[in-house]
Amino acid sequence: MPPLSSGLTIATWSELADRTPTYALVAGVDLVVIRYGDEVSVLYGRCLHRGSLLADGSIRGDDLVCGVHGWDYRVETGVSAYANDEALQKFTAWVDTDADAVMVDEGEIATWKREMADLTAVAFAGAAGRQET
Ligand code: FES
User: Which residues form the Rieske domain (predicted)?
Assistant: First the structure.
């Protein structure tokens, strides 16, 4: 279901190949867009192992597989089938069939990016504090 705020088009639905990872960039965040049948999944687009672009990966069964070392993530959820504690952020996405567009909530993605930056800053501050004592 689309959110109340207006969406941002990130792909043309009719041109999105089935089960083919596709790159998008929103609010400075790399994304991977995957059409599977009549559904679409939009996930954080960097592998949690070493940060490779997942749009360069492939689909194997229900999994998005990183092309570098083979880490896998469920297309529908972003959760790794191999290690369930590894999960890509899944963003709200929907298909506007009238506009032939895949849409996301840009505000949601920008907020997630800010939250990740804050967590990183806290982690660095914590590490610096430990070094000083
Ligand atoms: S960078 Fe993706 S599996 Fe290593």
Answer: 8-102
Strands 72-74 vs 29-36: parallel, antiparallel or unpaired = unpaired
Domain ranges of the chain: 9-132
Low-confidence ranges of the chain (pLDDT < 50): 4, 132-133
Coil, strand, or helix at residue 75? coil
- End-to-end, the C-alpha distance of the chain in Å comes to 50
Pocket of ligand 1 (CB under 6 A): 47, 49-50, 52, 66, 68-71
Is it true that domain 9-132 has CATH number 2.102.10.10? yes
Cα(70) to centroid of ligand 1, in Å?
Answer: 6
